[in-house]
Specification:
The complex is a heterodimer. Chain A is an alpha/beta fold. Helix content of chain A is 31%, strand content 27%. Chain A has 7 helices and 10 strands. Chain A is globular. Chain B is built from 12 helices and 10 strands. Classes of the chains: A alpha/beta, B alpha+beta. Chain A: This is ABC transporter ATP-binding protein.
């Protein structure tokens, strides 16, 4: 299996001197192309901190993060922003969509950040909304959509820039069990490709079945890795959606 | 960047309530600022109307004179002395006074009476009707058709008035470049007649109007006049003296400046606070944009663009409404002093730039401070 991301000996603490609190205590992590990797653990175990560090959002105090053979924490701020824009797609727990913009406009934002022109961006965004089953709601403002629909808009926004790594932070936290399962199943079926990895932070055990590997965290350390799938090649991937 | 700016605009405009409040705040501030500064400009312009209308290059006066309406009469020898100064092409006396005009309905109206040099009639306004030469007829006066002339019942040529119980006949009508500040109608006549009609002090000459041979002679003339204990000012200097008097000695300038400042602060507060609330409401979204890959300068540009659009729309509305108000007021009140000048609009524009800058600053500060990690943490 080919490595897409490798984090070595990640240490992160907050505060200083007496108030210093360790969130991560030397975590190692490897993610491979074509897998769905879960990071699970109780609240305060350091999942979100780890996710932020490997996605180039939060600088570690120690350790290195290499994505596609590049040490991301050696980059300057603007280069890091470009890196995130081009290689990482985020789906936030609260979606963080602009409610007064249409779904298409929301999805287009990463493309505008890439300086792509307005019409072309909207066209691409609409395509991804179609993929997510929201074609009929492309021109609606986001606040008129349900929670599940908003989640799918957020996913469309994350994939529109064709990232190598898709990062989900507690994707089912605001959804009912069935909707959560449907969305993750959809993501795995339609968005996981051989050129991409999906990393999901969650404590929702109802969706564990979709993981290839599960990293269990506790108290800032990686406690255990569960291999959830012996047959990565058997995964149903629909790459044509993104190559059209 | 065009796409991002379009998104910034939509974010702003789609939040109609806040967008409207923002525009309203700036509009209100610009309206007040422009109204105040226009009033000020109008007062300043009207305060110097006599100097502008008479158009002499230099004025000789008593050193104590602070404005054209409070002249201190000078003895005749000053005129002879001035005429003898090298570099003086021409010097004539002028008389400023006020008389009481009895109107046909039996009521009285005060009027400014300006007595022009009998020989040259230097400083006369442009005649629009009648014959200027008839000024030498007995009891002849020229009526100045400005917004205040109606107070005399708008007498036409041939109309007979009574000024300080003397018979006065309107022989010509003139149109001045600028109307007066105090709403008093103006009549012109000869210097001799003016001094006969109006009560006299020991000396009667209010000012000496002077034209130098060359502009380069002005400093020498001023020096020579000063030696005699009098003051010679160029037209611009005299206008400035008068304006300074109204600005600093009457409270007009200070009051208007305070009002302008209050308008500015009101606009700044409304726009600043509303914009801050707008940014605060979208703060996490901006944080998410940062996480996605927006750079600091892109977010700053978006916010600056939003603040600028709001401010300039407000500016446009503010200028439009205040100009409309001034225009309507001028129809209703002919002597209404306000005048919209490029300088007023520039002042309002600069203040709007400050409002936009301030609003952006507080928004940008907040957005730059938020860390994408905070968005993850919720």
């Amino acid at each position: 299996m080919k490595t897409i991301l490798e984090a070595k000996n990640i240490v992160k603490y907050f505060g200083s001197d007496e108030s210093k609190t360790y969130a991560l205590k030397g975590v190692n992590l490897t993610a491979y192309y074509g897998e769905v990797l879960y990071i699970v653990g109780p609240s305060g175990s350091g999942k979100t901190t780890l996710l932020s560090i490997i996605s180039g959002i939060l600088r570690p105090n120690e350790g290195t993060v290499t994505v596609k053979d590049k040490n991301i924490w050696q980059m300057k701020d603007d280069d890091l922003a470009d890196f995130r824009l081009n290689h990482i797609g985020f789906v936030f727990q609260d979606y963080h969509l602009f409610p007064k913009l249409t779904t298409t406009e929301n999805v287009s934002i990463p493309l505008f950040l890439k300086r792509q022109n307005w019409d072309k961006s909207l066209k691409e965004a609409k395509y991804y909304l179609e993929v997510m089953g929201l074609g009929s709601k492309a021109d609606l403002p986001v606040y008129k959509l349900s929670g599940g629909e908003q989640q799918r808009v957020a996913i469309a926004r994350a994939v529109v820039s064709k990232p190598d790594i898709l990062i989900f932070d507690e994707p089912t936290a605001s959804l009912d069990g069935e909707t959560g399962r449907q969305i993750i199943a959809f993501v795995k079926e339609h968005l996981l490709t051989k050129e991409r990895t999906i990393i999901i932070v969650t404590h929702d055990s109802r969706i564990f079945e979709f993981a290839n590997r599960i990293l269990h965290m506790e108290d800032g350390k990686l406690k255990q890795t569960t291999d959830n799938s012996n047959h990565l090649d058997e995964q149903k991937t629909i790459t044509k959606l993104e190559t059209q | 960047m065009k796409g991002l700016l379009k998104i910034a605009l939509k974010l702003l405009a789609n939040d109609r309530g806040k967008f409207f409040t923002l525009i309203l705040g700036v509009t209100f501030a610009v309206f007040l600022m422009n109204q105040m500064t226009s009033m000020f400009a109008g007062i300043m312009r009207k305060s110097t109307s006599n100097v502008i209308n008479i158009g002499a290059k230099m004025w000789v006066m008593d050193p104590s004179v602070k404005n054209d309406r409070s002249s201190i009469p000078m003895p005749d020898y000053v005129l002879d002395y001035v005429r003898s100064i090298k570099g003086v092409a021409m010097a004539v006396p002028i008389y400023f006074g006020s008389g009481l005009v009895k109107l046909p309905d039996g009521t009285y109206q005060g009027a400014n009476i300006i007595g022009l040099d009998d020989t040259t009639l230097f400083g006369r306004p442009p005649i629009i009707k009648g014959d200027l030469n008839k000024i030498y007829n007995s009891d002849a006066f020229i009526g100045v058709v400005d917004s205040d002339y109606r107070r005399l019942g708008s007498p036409d040529i041939g109309s007979v008035l009574s000024i300080n119980d003397h018979r006065a006949v309107i022989v010509a009508l003139a149109k001045p470049a600028s109307g007066g500040l105090f709403g008093t109608p103006t009549l012109y006549t000869t210097y001799t007649r003016a001094t006969q009609y109006l009560p006299r002090t020991r000396y009667s000459m209010s000012y000496i109007l002077l034209n130098p041979k060359n502009d380069s002679d002005i400093p020498y003339i001023q020096e020579q006049v000063k030696k005699l204990g009098y003051k010679a000012l160029t037209q611009k200097q005299f206008e400035k003296t008068i304006k300074n008097f109204y600005k600093y000695k009457t409270g007009v300038g200070t009051n208007i400046m305070i009002m302008t400042l209050i308008s500015f602060i009101v606009g700044l507060s409304i726009a600043g606070q509303t914009f801050y609330a707008f940014v605060l409401e979208n703060l996490e979204k901006f944080g998410a944009l940062k996480a996605i890959g927006a750079k600091k300068y892109e977010l700053m540009t978006m916010i600056l663009f939003q603040a600028s659009v709001t401010s300039f729309i407000g500016y446009g509305f503010g200028i439009m409404i205040s100009s409309l108000m001034i225009a309507i007021s001028k129809v209703r009140i002919p002597n209404y002093a306000a005048v919209v000048t490029y300088q007023n609009m520039l002042i309002a524009f600069l203040m709007v730039v400050v409002i936009a800058g301030f609003s952006s600053y507080i928004g940008i500060r907040k957005v730059l401070k938020i860390e994408p990690f905070d968005v993850f943490r919720g």
